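Quiz preparation item.
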């Protein structure tokens, strides 16, 4: 599916901890706190007390305890597939962004200015009557290029061109530093070509997956019929058959996240021998990368297998397949029948979403993709409090110090590996709220009456922006997303962490709340991203961001043994009947959650400077810390969304990001007096302890 339509949202959060603080007398909050302890802090607890399920013991199910009252009274809105803390912050941000876009649309802006482009893009998107008037004619030029295909070479040209449209058909891409030499940038080519969320959707048995595949054929039939394709039903069935062949040669989701396996530096001159069947010179020229001598082929067996398929499938089948994916990719920008058809399948059938979101909300997504830095700078100026940056910087450094102490305290890691880990930790760069590099948009041509033209021109320029990085010294401090997004991320090839301004607001970060809550909430996010640099894939990169094995063989073996315990634990969770969490797929995120929270707890204890934390709202500091963490994952989700998440997403479903972490943390046992026989109890020898 096209990247244009992805809704920004879920960041990578995590946490865990260690402390010598004795367990409180009660497992529950300290209800009998003295007036003196309550008044010891002028800050609020940060805890949403009305969200607590007092019928559930925190020792048995902490996720339910912290969030259960909210879960019981909250219904997922019909236009959402999940709802909770992340959604609420996203909605708050969307109201802000809508005001920014509407203000730009109403202004008499100078032609060519960022304000003009933001405003005219928004006006073009919400003009439903214009979209309905044009119908499929909005894609006339692109469809004509497909119709003109008369040879395998023509097909190669379309395949290359599709990279610039970012449709993921048949390949996906990104531009990044060379993982073997970070002084240069390279083009990374990856597998694509399927329209269902993951290869497993094509092969899994069971009524639900059969319904999804049948629904996919109906959807393709509907789109092609709307576009005037004759015998659309037969063509749709052929598309599913073709994609099933493509899915057969896809790497599965576990193998696909292996950074070492995906790094295959390849000479362009070797591509014809590696993957005959595709004219690579034609492909490269169409993709605007004809001047490159080398690239990284992410999944070589896929590239070889796909190239071999090309002459085995008729040109007419390829052309119909390409048309379908073009229309599907831009379906939300076409007339209402196309919009409705796309939502019916991708929203309702796949994810159980009941209603589409409003058109202006899709417009925000488009603006955040095509003009992210132009919109982001306005957002930053209006909504990013400077004091948030200072508070975050302090927390980051406390976490860095805490992690350093944790490395030193590891009894299973040898001194050589510890020294290398310290090197990497020392150079991790952190950006809070804003980047050092901002993209400018002089090359992006936006017109108020040309939505599809705006989308296509803007998408291609976004692609060209990446291509222009090739052959030049890489840039530091460039956000991969817009700072207005509710998210956080890490870039392993630069050892940079990014905390976008959009996430720095309650419930994740509350300037008025006590430190305990903030360290459990946003501190968990900081720790999560920091520990991604040391998870099962991040640990493969050194302090320079290059793939290098800096582990002693003994330490690497012990690390893998410990992570296997985590894999086995998460494999036991069954969020949807018949579907268990894939502990291998989610390993990196689970490590980030567990070890990140551990560091956040250590950092919180450091922030106290040896003083005792006050009791606020009946909760000790340690208890408020964990309540802050649980608030991050206050989420309800539809079964269809959870199914997709289990099969294709490296993040565990929200409840298990809490349950899976706290049951392994001695600090949680102490804070809530967890004993053998309680729901969260694991014997000490069965608990995960990695970092």
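Solution:
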């Amino acid at each position: 599916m096209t990247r244009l339509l992805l809704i920004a949202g879920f960041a990578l959060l995590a946490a865990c901890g260690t402390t010598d603080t004795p367990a409180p007398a009660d497992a529950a909050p300290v209800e009998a706190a003295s007036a003196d302890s309550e008044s010891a802090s002028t800050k609020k607890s940060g805890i949403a007390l009305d969200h607590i399920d007092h019928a559930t013991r925190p020792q048995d199910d902490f996720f339910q305890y912290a969030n259960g009252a909210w879960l019981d009274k909250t219904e997922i809105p019909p236009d959402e597939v999940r709802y909770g803390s992340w959604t609420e912050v996203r909605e708050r941000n969307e109201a802000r962004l809508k005001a920014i876009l509407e203000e730009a649309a109403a202004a008499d802006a100078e032609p060519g200015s960022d304000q003009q482009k933001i405003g005219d893009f928004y006006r073009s998107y919400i003009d439903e009557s214009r979209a309905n008037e044009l119908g499929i004619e909005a894609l006339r030029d692109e469809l004509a290029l497909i119709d003109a295909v008369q040879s395998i070479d023509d097909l190669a040209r379309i395949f290359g061109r599709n990279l610039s449209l970012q449709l993921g058909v048949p390949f996906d891409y990104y531009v990044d530093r060379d993982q073997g030499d970070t002084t240069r940038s390279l083009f990374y080519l990856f597998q694509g070509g399927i329209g269902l969320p993951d290869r497993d959707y094509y092969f899994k048995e069971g009524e639900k997956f059969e319904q999804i595949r049948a629904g996919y054929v109906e959807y393709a039939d509907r789109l092609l019929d709307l576009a005037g394709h004759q015998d659309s039903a037969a063509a749709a069935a052929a598309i599913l058959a073709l994609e099933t062949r493509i899915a057969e040669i896809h790497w599965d989701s576990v193998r696909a996240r292996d950074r070492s396996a995906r790094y295959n530096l390849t000479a362009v001159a070797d591509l014809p021998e590696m993957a005959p069947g595709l004219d690579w010179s034609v492909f490269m020229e169409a993709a605007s990368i004809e001047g490159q001598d080398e690239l990284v082929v992410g999944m070589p067996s896929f590239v070889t297998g796909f190239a071999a398929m090309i002459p085995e499938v008729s040109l007419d089948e390829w052309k119909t397949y390409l048309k379908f994916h073009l229309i599907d990719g831009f379906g939300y920008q076409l007339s209402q029948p196309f919009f409705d058809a796309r939502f019916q399948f991708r929203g309702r059938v796949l994810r159980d979403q009941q209603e589409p979101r409003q058109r202006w909300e899709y417009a925000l997504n488009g603006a955040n993709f095509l003009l992210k830095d132009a919109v982001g700078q306005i957002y930053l100026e209006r909504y990013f409090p400077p004091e948030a940056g200072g508070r975050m910087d302090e927390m980051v450094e406390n976490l860095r110090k805490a992690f350093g102490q944790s490395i030193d305290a590891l009894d299973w890691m040898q001194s050589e590996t510890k020294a290398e880990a310290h090197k990497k930790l020392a150079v991790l760069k952190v950006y809070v709220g804003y980047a050092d590099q901002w993209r400018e948009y002089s090359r992006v041509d936006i017109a108020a009456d040309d939505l599809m033209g705006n989308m296509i021109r803007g998408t291609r320029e976004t692609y060209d922006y990446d291509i222009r990085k090739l052959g030049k010294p890489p840039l530091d401090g460039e956000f991969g997303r817009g700072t207005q997004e509710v998210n956080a991320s890490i870039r392993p090839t630069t050892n940079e962490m990014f905390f976008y301004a959009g996430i720095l607001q309650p419930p994740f970060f509350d300037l008025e709340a006590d430190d305990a809550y903030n360290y459990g909430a946003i501190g968990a996010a900081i720790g999560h991203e920091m520990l991604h640099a040391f998870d099962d894939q991040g640990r493969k990169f050194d302090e320079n961001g290059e793939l290098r094995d800096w582990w002693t063989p003994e330490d690497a073996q012990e690390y893998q043994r410990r992570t296997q315990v985590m894999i086995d634990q998460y494999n036991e969770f069954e969020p949807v009947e018949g579907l268990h969490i894939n502990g291998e797929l989610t390993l990196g995120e689970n490590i980030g959650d567990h070890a990140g929270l551990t560091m956040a707890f250590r950092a919180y204890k450091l922030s106290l400077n040896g003083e005792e934390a006050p009791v606020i709202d009946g909760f000790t500091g340690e208890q408020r810390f964990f309540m802050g963490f649980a608030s991050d994952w206050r989420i309800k989700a539809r079964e269809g969304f959870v199914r997709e998440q289990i099969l294709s997403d490296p993040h565990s479903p929200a409840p298990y990001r809490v349950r899976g972490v706290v049951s392994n943390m001695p600090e949680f046992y102490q804070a809530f007096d967890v004993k053998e026989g309680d729901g969260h109890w694991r014997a000490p020898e069965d608990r995960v302890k990695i970092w």
